[in-house]
């Protein structure tokens, strides 16, 4: 908890109040104290929503991770992309702030000795110090997994404590009338000025969210993340509010008020006020506090930004190279270096640092409002596994907090229009990169994650339905088991359909055969459902055309998948009724051909022959992830090529197979390229040792799907169970 709190304190305490106290005082006068207090209330409300989600999802990534669990992969990328940018820009601001205060401190030190080196007076000295410090922190983070900076936090808190204690000591020697006079008029610009000051200064309390961004590295995260967030905010408010009070009451003489002092020099108001009641030592203390605060905030934002990039790379929404971890330290060194490099680049390139900072503030406020909304969705949808930490007074806290953050974001967008323009431009750049480089792999990873962790479907408000038409009693157990694997009954719905095949003028009292067949099927369905623990629903209809009835039911119930049983595949037949049904269904279709009494849990090996072209990637990824969710299975991707294939082509094909394997099944699976002029026999021989073969249906057009010659021949030659998949559309 101490380390996690250190990240929050490092990001919040110091930099914000030193940079924004002057703006707040100039806008609203003494009521800047109230503005920071009200912002503190909003920040605490926001931290409570963050804490609930962080306890539910104790992983690195912060708001991006929460979005990935609840929203679509495209929405999650957008949130992660802008939060990463906001953290990087915040790091840029603190790096430049550190450079400014560090050079000022050095100049003051040299001035006491009589002369100031000329390089300290050059404009490039601030950027040079900022770049050197950023590179140094980044290099340090590549060798250690923690953010560090605990001693700096202790030091700056101690310095601020001295400033506060000194202020109250000066207050005791001041007449009460003078103190009262300095607090008047309290609302110097009315309630409108107070709201403006809140909008300008809220970002001074940003930083507690960085704890969630590094949540994957916190011990006992379900307890320590909520505590660290709230504790870091409490520490910040215990420093900010008393400090603002003493600056207001003893920071000026009778010739001017704190508002007038702030209006004349907003950036130096804290230093000037401290010098008034503590003398020169107060001025030096503020400089020291500024240097320590900027350094720790830079360190915290670099640390958090690198973890956001790490979380995104693991989901393939950023290049996977960013997820490389150093063997010794456990640090995501590539992510750290890339983030550090971007910060250094922006330090030199940003033409308008103030506008970029306003864009960072705007993004944080919008994502805070989104976080409140996500907290409501998570609470509503986490029925089976509620978050360990729960927001009190739900839903009042997230509703009020979300509206407040949204209102401040709107104010920020109106006050600084350039902030909105920068944010939109960055989103546009991200959209182009996502669609051109990351979309396919990111979506496949998302499909795999949802299949591996079915709770994600509930968190996204989905209740997927799989339709399972059963006509053969011998297939009932296998079909229901596979359906429950595709869509667990606890999180989705398994709808078993039985069609009584009978003419339109059927009389059950005369012709008992359809009723007897229905009874046999339903008996096996009930036995299989009870023995497997799958509480499936049943649908029974009467039709002379069973396949058309299946298509009608699938469309009527908006099924995500249809699971069909198959007894035989003939070598010559084309456009069979079953293949005609494939063309009518707009959802994913899985066709199972299995021997009598086959059980899904017996198939520990899965063979996936590939021909070099995709087409079923999303369905294949979902199927493989579902099959491996509760039982460890060996998956092998097999490619058969002619014996006369050139070596260069063999090398290219192996790379293609490796790429296909990573995209569809991750890295934990086998892949094999076999040289053979008889691919059907080769695959059949390999299938003899496998427990299950997965093949793809051939797609000739939007409404024409066939098993295809290759799939047909492999299925005929293989004795083991075969699954044929057909993607939606």
Automatic annotation (TrEMBL):
A single Gene Ontology CC annotation of this entry is: membrane
Give the Pfam families listed for this entry: AA_permease, Usp
Q: Where are the transmembrane segments?
A: 7-26, 32-55, 76-104, 124-143, 150-171, 191-216, 228-247, 282-304, 325-350, 356-379, 391-414, 420-439
Key words, A-Z: Membrane, Transmembrane, Transmembrane helix
The membrane topology of this protein is: Multi-pass membrane protein
UspA domain: residues covered: 606-725
Amino acid permease/ SLC12A domain sequence ranges: 5-417
Q: Which SUPFAM superfamilies match?
A: Adenine nucleotide alpha hydrolases-like
Protein localization: Membrane
Enumerate the Gene Ontology biological process terms.
Answer: transmembrane transport
**Is Membrane there in the keyword field?**
yes
Report the protein name in the record: Amino acid transporter
